[in-house]
Amino acid sequence: MAVYHCSLCRRTSFTGRRHLYSASHRRRLQEALGRLEEEVAAARAAMDGAAVRRYDPAEHERRVWCLCCGRGVRRDGRSGALALPHAGLLQHLAGAEHRRETARFWRENRADAALRERFVVAAEEYARFVAALEKAVGAHEEREEENIRQMAARIREAERRQRDTVRAALEVGAAELSRIQRCCAEHRERRGWDGDGGGRRAALSTRNLVAFS
Ligand SMILES: [Zn+2]
Ligand SMILES: [Zn+2]
């Protein structure tokens, strides 16, 4: 009997390819396909919404193990600062390499042929998803631009109000200053005295004016 190495079970079997029909291999195959099927189902569900999110490396750099191709695949896509959830995995599932490797894996592991189509995504389906995704990215960018426009308008309005407040304060300060100056001049005239009391008060008022602005 030929020796057979099963990469799925990671063991060498001395019953040859009969191992593929054994209960332990069937169970392991079912478990492994179940894990991949969950990821594929989540990706398919995301195809309807085609949503985008802010990119977060902790969340969006996750990889999914593709059993058929024997390698990790990035689950999410990325466009600048945006994450495209499940777009990486969907692109992989719709690719020619994955379709070929899935056929090989099914053949080699004697998997149920009826289940195979669940693990691949049709090219037309993927193309529709990409078109919806492009629209979602465009809509998000428009929203961002609108937010920036509104923020800029708010800043301009706050600056205008601040300028008005300063101008009003300066006007009050200037009126006060001229009142004090008039008052000092009257006192000087009345007393015939040119002391520095009025000057000190005026200087004090100028300091207030600086503190105001
Ligand atoms: Zn096996
Ligand atoms: Zn694959």
Automatic annotation (TrEMBL):
Keywords: Coiled coil
Keyword Coiled coil belongs to the record: yes
InterPro entries: CCDC84-like
Pfam families per the UniProt record, alphabetical: CCDC84
Ranges in a coiled coil: 26-53
Name of this protein: Coiled-coil domain-containing protein 84
